[in-house]
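quick one, 224 residues, struct below
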Amino acid sequence: MTVILLRTLIFFVLLNFGMRMMGKRQIGELHLTEFVTAVMLSELAILPMTDADIPLLYGVFSVFSLCCLEVISSHLCRNIPALRRVMEGRPLVLVSRGHIIEENLASSRISTDELFSAIRVAGFRGIDEVSYVILEQTGALSVIADPVCTPPAAEDLGLEVQKKGISHPIIIDGCIQQRTLGQTGKDMAWLKKQLKANGLKEKELVYFCVDDCDNISYERKREK
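---
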């Protein structure tokens, strides 16, 4: 039992390292080849974890080899367009200018109900509000609104809007994010000054953020 537990721990660390090495995303964003690799990794890890007769190094070598193969194939696909089309496919247009392309819908094995469900999930009431729906290589459906149904932007109205950039979380759950603090061009002296000016303590904060225009936002933890 102890041997199996130790092997499980080793492969847990190894698989996490391998997936990080491959730079993978969420499961819903994986390409087909990436998903197949993930399934194979789990299968390769299970055998040496549960069977003490299989040398541990066999499993480690198999997992490492598969991770390296995936990294190599990813680089090849990125640099060789023809190979990328074979391995990853191409985006497929399911709706063009508000009209369903039935042959593409059939070839992708997506039902009309699924198509309308994706349109509703994207926040539209129906296909009449949609210009394009595209099936991406990851399997996700991208829904692009009809310009007529798109709310006017500030630029369309001739309004000047101050650009705030993104909000940088400098404190999360009471812990200072030193790397993020450095990326904003601030230092600890600036942070302490801001906390003091607002009567705050880092440990009592859920978050403390600053945007590119030095606007600050924060939230205190609720008292239990």
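The longest strand covers residues 205-211.
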